[in-house]
Amino acid sequence: MTLSCFELGETMLSVNEAMTALMTLVTRTTGSESVPLEKAHGRRLAADVTAPINVPQQTNAAMDGVALAWPDTRDTRWSVAGEAFAGQAFAGPVPAGQCVRITTGAPLPEGTDTVIMREQLDEQADHVTINAPERIKRGQHIRQAGEDIRAGSVALAAGTRLDAAAMGLIASLGYAEVSVTARARVAIFSTGNEVTAPGKALPPSAIYDANRFTLTGLLTEQGAEVIDIGILPDDPNAIQQALEDAARQSDLVITSGGVSVGQADFTRQALQSMGQLAFWRVALRPGRPMACGLIGEQQTPFVGLPGNPVAVMVTFSQFVVPLLRALEGQAPSLPRRLTAIAETALKSRLARTDFLRGVYRCDAQGVLHVRDTGAQGSGILTSMVAANCLIELGDDQPGAQPGEAVCIQPLARWP
Ligand code: AMP
Ligand code: MG
User: Fold this and answer.
1) Residues within 6 Å of ligand 1 by CB
2) Can you list the domains of the chain with their CATH numbers?
3) Whose CA is closest to 373, among 365, 361, 382?
């Protein structure tokens, strides 16, 4: 049985232990809603989309030319019985031995089985002559009804994130609305007396608030709705008030900062009075201190991320992404992992998972190579900007030498 967040004590947790325990925080999902198809990009299907029709609806021409019933005799001269355009079928069967001029997408006239493209025809007013008839195969240049999607089949499964192709597919089935999971409402705030909003003058020994903006970007990429509560001072009363408000109006509350040992007391005091919480040390770099809990009457899940900007992004990718999936009723999925050859020596430590910021590339042979981005401090946000992947060096790896195969997690910036 999985232990809940609150039964783990203050031992050092592995990334997997922390992830598994965090998932127990989610006990209800966001539900579903119907939205117009044009608003559905990036949303997640709440139910299977079943095809009400064949796509294409009718067997039709894949080329401009003529449609005919191809005989064994390889006749070259065919009289023209009429025309079929896309959206306008030829009425009635085509008399034996005759053909119909046809454009791409037009329904194949009754009595024909083959399309000959224009480039292979000499066209006259009332007849055509076919060049190189020996190259023609019966049934060529035809799209069969239902060859893309059969009526009654599942065209897209519940849980699918709707990208451009999926949007087009749903439209091709005739649906103007689609049932999607409701967006998770995620309240975020930054903590720290030194943290200053961009646009304001920066006092000496202060720092601009980066985390609310990386979190806004990350949450938006994941299809969540952001409720931005702003910056809170290191003051338990202010934090408690804000957490209570946030819990009332959201499905998940995320804070950054205030969970490291020197700082934990403010958040700890605030949380202890209003819910269950756990403070963790995760064997992870960057991102060791984390808090989690259930807050307010609503028992809203809460995750307290570290303060350092890179740690925020790394812990988000490992812990918050699966939580958001769970809130939308999805089974957890593992991060996307690839293997690449290290081009530089990579530093790590045993009994800890290190996520280095990396740049991977593919060589002419299709082999992936990866180097780190240089200085790896957990406050160096330029390392995240430069990176296109995280290099994951697990608990059993003391580091990697150039030429060694390592695991990378590509940073998928867009859904
Ligand atoms: P803390 O966990 O609160 O001790 O924060 C760890 C480090 O992250 C400190 O250097 C903070 O100044 C920094 N930090 C905390 N919150 C933010 C933020 N919102 N934006 C940028 N840096 C932050
Ligand atoms: Mg702080």
Assistant:
1) 190, 192, 194-195, 207, 209-211, 256-260, 263, 306-309
2) 5-31+183-327 (3.40.980.10), 33-54+148-181 (3.90.105.10), 60-143 (2.170.190.11), 338-410 (2.40.340.10)
3) 382
